[in-house]
Amino acid sequence: MFTINNDRSKFPELDDAGNALIDLTSHKYLKLWQGPQHPGVTGNMSLELTVTGDEIVESRTHVGYLHRGFEKLMERRTFIQCFPTCIRLCVAEPDPNEYLLSSCVEELAGIEVPETAQWLRMLALEMARLQVLLRQVPGQAGTFALGLGYQWGNYIRDLILDRFEELTGGRVYHMYILPGGVRGLLPNGFKNRLEENLKLVDEFLPNVWDLIYTNSVFKKRAKGLAVIPKEWIDEYGIYGPAARAAGIMRDVRKTHPYLFYSEIDFEPFTTDESDVFARSLVRWHDLKMTVDIIRQILAKMPEKGDIKAPTPNVMHWKIPKGETYVKCESSRGEYGMYLVTDGSDKPRRVNLKGPSYTHATSVLEKLLVNANVADAAIMVSLATCPPEIER
After folding, report:
1. Which candidate, 130, 140, 144, places its Cα nearest to that of 204?
2. pLDDT 10s digits, 321-331
3. Per the CATH hierarchy, to which homologous superfamily does domain 72-354 belong?
């Protein structure tokens, strides 16, 4: 079993902060690159590892292998043109970006979103979370033990993408949430088809539990590995499942409810172990909880109603001067957008606050020190989205 050794005296070339003070020309050290294409890396990014034997002495995160610079691109486009750009800030879960940009524009322009549209936004956000978790939950365990990778849950995930295609016309990028509301009501029979998909998730969850969380290989590899101390949560700005795995409740839907989440009955799962196993376990419970939330939304949402407030011609829409910050809960944790306008038809400044920036740089680089090379896939347990870093 490989675990992180916190005894820094083993590597006297490390200072108290974990920074490497080593001579890379020494024969004792070897530089390895993990990624940009590697099952232990979540996206087109790379880890520059300095190792001695099979133990990691230093790690540096590199994100120059992916599409980037979205914030500056958005500052040169009209507000409606920003939507095809902002959704690429996280390909796996683009819908929170649609919601944040729309909400920022609505707040600055004084637009009131109709009730039906708010329920439909909730549904789209939770469906996005569901399809992400259907890949993440078996994928995280597969990386460390079972060789399943992200493929096991992909069949059911594809069915959820079918529903997105039916609702929005797109499987990956949707642009369903726009300033003022959403693009359409649910198609006829949509609820029944989505419920059939949710039943398959119900059947899937016990199989995941039996194969992964009772699996001796995964337990030996993941328990006690990459423990995040509670004091790091505030110090490093750790959010979402990584924080809840350390026993700290971090879920914007509960702490700062938006849309109609205050009318939904749910309680995010927390545990205290704060290791790779715990972070995976939290996401298994998140997957189960998301199914229940979607069912509550379908039961509570109005059948009919206005889905979009009146807006000016979006190609020539000038937003009043101001600034705002809006946040929501993504599958990775708190996700926020800061928008500044100057009265023109383009944003003056756009800034994204995503958990991946901290999780995949400062936190990951510190967790990897003294870890075994085989455990460099610790990154997968943090579930990062690299474009959030080089944004």
Report:
1. 130
2. 999 999 999 99
3. Cytochrome-c3 Hydrogenase, chain B (1.10.645.10)
